[in-house]
Queue: 2 jobs
Job 1
Amino acid sequence: MIDLKKVEDVVDKLANIEKICFVGCGASMSDLYPAFQLVKEKGNKISSRIFTANEFNYSVPSNIDDKTLVIIASLGGNTRESVAAIAVAKGKKATVVTITATAGSGLTKGADYVLYHGFHENYAAKTHKMQTALYLVVGVLEKFDGYTDAADFKDGLLKIDDLIIEGVKPLDKVAKKFAESIKNEPLIYVLSSGATYGTAYSTANFLFMEMQWLPAIVMNSGEYFHGPFELTEKNVPYLLFMNEGSTRHLDARALEFLQRFQAKYYVLDAKDFGIGNVIAKSVVNYFNPLILTGAMRVYAEKLSIARNHPLTSRRYMWKLENY
Amino acid sequence: MIDLKKVEDVVDKLANIEKICFVGCGASMSDLYPAFQLVKEKGNKISSRIFTANEFNYSVPSNIDDKTLVIIASLGGNTRESVAAIAVAKGKKATVVTITATAGSGLTKGADYVLYHGFHENYAAKTHKMQTALYLVVGVLEKFDGYTDAADFKDGLLKIDDLIIEGVKPLDKVAKKFAESIKNEPLIYVLSSGATYGTAYSTANFLFMEMQWLPAIVMNSGEYFHGPFELTEKNVPYLLFMNEGSTRHLDARALEFLQRFQAKYYVLDAKDFGIGNVIAKSVVNYFNPLILTGAMRVYAEKLSIARNHPLTSRRYMWKLENY
């Protein structure tokens, strides 16, 4: 479980927040997506913006100021562009909270507050960066913006790790089947909606493209119907993350289409993990990406075995000067 | 040229706007992206959110109210999800402006104001939906939010159509070469940044995937370096839209990487169209997608000829009940 008290301590110290900016790169930007989406949908006066770090650094929004909270995340804490964003935000007098797994890293320097999270301990820990960002903005919305579902949220966070850890246990067989079936495909499509769009983005861009060198196309389940569904054919592979909650209709409509045209589809459905029995309806939208990210990790591991390509293999990242 | 006066007349009638939501589907959502980005970067108190229509309809943000301007676009004006968004927004007391090319269509009913634009007249007209949305929010920002670059913006809009029409004239040969070279590729990557990300998204999802049945992966030029660049290899095809203005560094860095690893890259560079000589620096970021969208249309037409696949061919869209 994440250290809820440490997040609450940061919220206690914050003053006068009217705007939130989420800044990160790659998988860390995706991990901020559920919190971005929560503020986008539930913020009253508080606004929500998300940036890949270098777009924030080179095209700094004009209204970053002392009423702005900038939340910056990086797992290793040394992503150059994200570290640079601290100085950009502080230069505009924003309050900066960084989220990282790594003590002493670049992201721990120059920020107003640093929140640490685990990552390697278990499948639930893969979502602790997301959980930390979510609980931070829940606190901010409650303190400054009249948000009334914070208790439901906290209750959910007390339960979600067990739900993930128990939920992934029976996945080995189905994930292995997915991996064997998909291992020689030249391309896969990934669909989801709502807060889980970030998980779909992350799965396509980082689990598949970065870590498996497997081209992947991500799209919102709603957008699918406005053009890209033209590529749906028999046996073309699709991975669909289905949400419990308000955008389920979009995902279910996509599933129906994939079935109708006999695509080779794989579904990870938050409902299969019993999320609706454990998490309050008022906040369930934002717990979908947590359970689905944990589950997807099993699928990615099985894929890496089936393709004989470890998730840590890179040809460029960390190996080239300046990249 | 778009009818600036008609847009100004709508702005004159608006009162008390604090938030702007952009709602559309597919290519029409992309056409709203530059205006979304302008408000995101230059809004002072006014916030900016963008939605695919069904995500807006099924997961309605809690703070849509009588201080919210909802801008909804659809070329043909009968996209079911976008038409439904009018009632959703009006149900929450928002002011609704719709943008469409089609008199009498669903999008012209129930909105507070309707703005019409051309599309088929010439290459500049392909950007008139974008221009209308941009000029509308420029007016809103100036009237309610202290925006000071409206005169530069209007000056740019008076010049941009000629820049597009003259700029596309010499493209036939290079676009044909692109088309011949790319016509048998199984997949293409599309990169850009800033306001032009919407054009990259639109090119990948609609010109390539919907209208050419050619799989395409879109990404922000900044995000490229945080994982997906692992797939860059000799002769893998990339289309890069380069911007004049504040995010040019992100695009140029991507170009350098594509050159270094001998990808089969194609560049559409806003600088080649002389945009920097004609458009004021204060607003040039938001004119890049206009010139690049106009230019890309020529490339798409040549591609459709090379692949013997008209841009109007569909297998599902408009042909299935309920889709």
Job 2
Amino acid sequence: MEFPSKLIENAVEELAKLPGVGKKTALRLALHLLKNESEDTFLLAESLVKMRTEVKHCKQCHNISDTEVCGICSNPLRDKSLLCVVSDIRDVIAIENTSQYKGLYHVLGGVISPLEGVGPSDLHIDSLLERLLPNSEVKEVLMAISPTMEGDTTAFYLTRKLRDHQNLKITSIARGIPVGGELEYTDEITLGRSIVERTAYGRA
Amino acid sequence: MEFPSKLIENAVEELAKLPGVGKKTALRLALHLLKNESEDTFLLAESLVKMRTEVKHCKQCHNISDTEVCGICSNPLRDKSLLCVVSDIRDVIAIENTSQYKGLYHVLGGVISPLEGVGPSDLHIDSLLERLLPNSEVKEVLMAISPTMEGDTTAFYLTRKLRDHQNLKITSIARGIPVGGELEYTDEITLGRSIVERTAYGRA
């Protein structure tokens, strides 16, 4: 694709580096910015640069944060005996949006994936183990890792690492039929697990 | 959606103003930028601001340009007797990519659309008429406006405005079955026009 302007071409190239944005979409975005007030473009650029330079990672749970320790970790109303292990910041946001969880988090920053060269040392596993030392307040670790092969491997690895912690309860988010899901269209593994791990009626 | 950081929230809000970008996509883009080198974010922001502040519109054809007069208008190899009228800058890029057109352009900046409050005076129609004054080099005006109701209205309006220009040939891009298109799946209007406006065999 040839562009009538080097400036547009540069902008399109940079935009097209974003995930899921091809050259045509990038051009549409660039022309949209050109059509609107320049103030809009400045605000967008400023918010991105500000985010990139100023966002911190919570030194306790590795969630993103505006402060050294994030709002969840520093909230005295959160249950410090419950620790939810997730792979990604997006999982924290998803779980927070359910309003069903009042404990703390630990963001691993990915899952173990030998194919992509991600080993346990690339994840925030050491700091997780530190948070679970015998004198820790944590009584339960809830594994909320996506049930992919890499996710299951990671959860299994962590469970092995934690097996000596006698008083620590390790739980996993429930697997089963999604609310609103149709039984007949559910894959066999999920349906099978939903039967094996059936719950007392009225519990959910 | 609640965010663990005001900085992220701002960035997501700004990104979500882009066309076709919802909050979830915006969050994915923001987290992608956070994961990558900060240099990438700076380059993106800089290219957008630079584009927005420095891109000019060609004072002759209203195409985007890095200079006062765009590269097409100032190119001595282009055929100055042929003028292609398009509604949008993207149409110029699309036509340029075909390598089939060697004339000049005139970008209207939209189409007449009473529903959206766009009248002839909101478009670059006066400057088009100026380019077509009797002493003009232009011998043919090629209407390359999308065949929507608004597009057809605009083309019709322009044709009426130009009917006194006795020596000016007014043409339109051909309507017909797209190359690779299936006859049986083509809508009746297109198929009908492709028959009425049939061309001598071997011309296309």
